[in-house]
Amino acid sequence: xxxxxxxxxxxxxxxxxxxxxxxxxxxxxxxxxxxxxxxxxxxxxxxxxxxxxxxxxxxxxxxxxxxxxxxxxxxxxxxxxxxxxxxxxxxxxxxxxxxxxxxxxxxxxxxxxxxxxxxxxxxxxxxxxxxxxxxxxxxxxxxxxxxxxxx
Length: 151
Known about the structure:
Layout lengths: L1 E8 L8 E8 L7 H9 L4 H22 L4 H15 L7 H9 L13 H14 L13 H6 L3
Antiparallel strand pairs: 1-2
Helix pairs in contact: 2-3, 3-5
């Protein structure tokens, strides 16, 4: 990404004016036939890729919550459980819809080749799908309550 900024005072003939310009550009590679073919070949591994991307996000959120003084792992697991129970598709607002998208995992079986964290997150998600009590995860706050504006 490139950003250019220029600011120039006007000549003394018109005091009090200032000229300002801003431009920016983003460069990205266009897909080629190799990338497109690789994408369609990976389709059968899509759930594993989704879980991997979410795992990376959850681990970063856990670190943030740990630094805030909470047990990050428990809070994320509780959120995975509660989201499936309390946030319906096409939620009432954009925050709810974002939570539903971020804290809902694919229902396909976790493969034995996937990291153990996938199974941990998946079990919390499935616990919520089965409408079980999410309070087994000891987190004093509910991120779902925050998203819904109850806290």
